[in-house]
Write a structure and sequence with these properties.
about 10% helix, about 25% strand, 3 helices
């Protein structure tokens, strides 16, 4: 993003924590970073954070708040988030006492867009496989795919047990050629991670029977080895 910007005023990153002074745009008075200009009394930002040196005239609209645990300002309203010390991140209140902690969970990139999670304005969620996503990226992936799977580990992102059962019923009505009925194939289940040897069948009907990831059901999220 910054490398592609041709304007030198926009092509650099600012270390907000290193800022010590600011200049009032109304009277041009240089002073220590603060919300109200000490010379003319102008408000330099409806929202001001003295830690991050962050000024924003839409602070109330964005519901910006500073999190001491994260060390940065976030948007969305303090009342809607809690800080998890182990995950080292602010998470939605809906995840409190329900999420599985992962050390420095947000100190990584989104599994879909590969953009950083920690300082993103988009909420982050953890998939059943444990990989992290921007909430919007996860939603888009689930809505746009018939069989949404994690791009990193290929595990299912949603419960497909009903679909797998329907596929199993179709498979039972499909006949394998006599010359192939005694052959076997070795597969790896993307959901439970087990390697198994199964009777030969067409690729779309290869399955992990009694899959531990589907609580003993059948899983068609497999690949040949």
């Amino acid at each position: 993003m910054f490398d592609e910007e041709s304007d030198p005023k926009k092509s650099h990153r600012i270390d907000r924590h290193a800022v010590r002074e600011c200049v009032c745009r109304n009277c041009q008075h240089r002073q220590q970073s603060k919300q109200i200009c000490e010379a003319c009394g102008s408000c330099m930002g409806a929202y001001f954070c003295g830690v991050c040196n962050h000024f924003d005239n839409k602070g109330n609209e964005k519901k910006i708040f500073h999190c001491d645990g994260c060390g940065i300002c976030r948007v969305g309203g303090r009342e809607n988030f809690f800080h998890c010390e182990k995950c080292c991140a602010c998470l939605s209140l809906s995840m409190q006492n329900k999420h599985q902690c992962l050390d420095s969970a947000l100190k990584q990139n989104c599994s879909v867009c590969l953009e950083p999670l920690f300082d993103s304005r988009n909420a982050a969620i953890k998939a059943p496989c444990g990989h992290m996503f921007h909430d919007k990226c996860h939603t888009d992936l689930v809505e746009q795919s018939d069989f949404p799977r994690c791009p990193l580990c290929l595990r299912d992102l949603v419960n497909l047990s009903k679909f797998y059962q329907q596929l199993r019923e179709v498979r039972e009505e499909t006949t394998v050629p006599p010359e192939l009925q005694n052959q076997t194939l070795k597969i790896l289940c993307n959901n439970c991670g087990q390697q198994k040897v199964i009777p030969f069948h067409l690729n779309e009907f290869l399955a992990c029977e009694e899959c531990t990831a589907t609580r003993g059901g059948v899983c068609f999220n497999v690949r040949k080895l």
